[in-house]
Amino acid sequence: MTMNYFNPVTTQTWANGRHEVRCVKIIQETPDVRTFCFMAEQPVLFFFKPGQFVTLELDIDGEQVMRSYTISSSPSIPYSFSITVKQVPGGKVSNWLHANMSVGDKIAVHGPVGNFNSIDFPADKVLLLSGGVGVTPLMSMTRWFFDTNANVDVEFIHSARAPRDVIYHRELVHMFSRIPEFKLHIVCEKKEDIGEAWAGYRGFLTQPMLELMAPDFLEREIFCCGPVPYMNAIKNILRANNFDMDHYHEELFGATPADVKEEALEMAEMAEEAAENIVEADLVTVEFASSGKSVQVQVGETVHSAAAQLGLHIPKACGMGICGTCRVELKSGEVDMDHNGGITDEDVEEGYILSCCSRVKGDLVVDF
After folding, report:
1. How wide is the angle at C-alpha 131 spanned by C-alphas 341 and 139, nearest 5°?
2. 320 and 260 in contact (C-beta within 8 Å)?
3. Closest Cα partner for 249 from 159, 118, 355?
4. Residue 33 has what DSSP assignment?
5. Are 116 and 252 in contact (CB under 8 A)?
6. Are 44 and 8 in contact (CB under 8 A)?
7. pLDDT tens-digit readout, 13-26
8. Burial of 293 (C-beta count, 10 Å sphere; 0-12/13-18/19+)
């Protein structure tokens, strides 16, 4: 490979959209966690905000499957990016990646997107809280702080099952040994079954533990990622201490929240009742220009649902306006879009919408 390969004149910059990348390295982090490193065939500068994620487009047994993963690498190493995946029992995508992804394989990715990042919420003092594989976005942030010599006071508290399950352990110890303002704390949750020597914190993270590790936690910008029960426990501690939750940020992508599921069920029941009383004059037309198809739907129907009625499959992963996978261009008409960070202001200005969370207001034309 010559240096001309990285000629800045010919090197492209990553932008939200679909890109083909090649797996160039696989790292076994722990017994059930691997990091997959990717590069583009032609040089691309993978600029993103530490904490953001991408959505993988995979073909598993002849079925197109979309799944979102946080970028665990830092944009300070811009010619590649990495995701770190835990093999979950019964997990369709995680098991497929561990069993089938090899160096040299090519896949398509969408992104980067996400409001959970350290760039949009700058602070002199931060507290990073992670549980299990939730460490990945916080590792991206930490690597960014370290590589850029950022003048940031960092307290990093990570909870794992046992010492053998601490992802990036040696790298974290290395980084935090070189910068006095960086402090690392590891909590091993399995008190009775650690299985190896461990002199650190044991059990689940509690307020007394938090006060010992970061006495000034109420004064810090907090970034949290982990299992839902873990994040709920953290929020309970903060609220009990009257913490200003405007300075608390968590990675939302994961299982559909219970309140969203309940809302979906309620809407389904309402739709069934309303279906009996539909008047044709109340319907509006949604046209899909590239497909040459159109359908009449009620005001308030999502663009994604309208497409599905025509047998058109707009790719999506989260269904909540988080991942950005279902982005399409709105050629004409208006929608109400209630997203969760899966699209940028620049995309909206250019006419793009997220079909999963964009509700029809009138006749419209979509480029799909």
Report:
1. 65
2. yes
3. 118
4. E
5. yes
6. no
7. 887 678 899 999 99
8. middle
Q: What pLDDT does 257 receive?
A: 41
List the structure tokens of 253: 């992508």
- In tens, the pLDDT along 118-156 reads 999 999 999 999 999 999 999 999 999 999 999 999 999
Give dist(CA 5, CA 352) in Å, integer.
Answer: 33
Phi–psi pair at 235, nearest 5 degrees: -65, -35
pLDDT in tens, 251-285: 865 444 444 344 444 544 555 555 555 455 578 99
Confidence of residue 8 (pLDDT cuts 50, 70, 90): low
Tokens in use for 129?
Answer: 């809280």
What the block records as the tokens of 70 is 């946080």
Q: Which amino acid is at 177?
A: S
Mean pLDDT over 237-252 rounds to 93
* Axis-axis angle for helices 135-147, 169-178 (nearest 10): 30
> Rounded distance, CA 366 to CA 307, Å?
10
Integer Cα distance of 297 and 206 in angstroms: 51
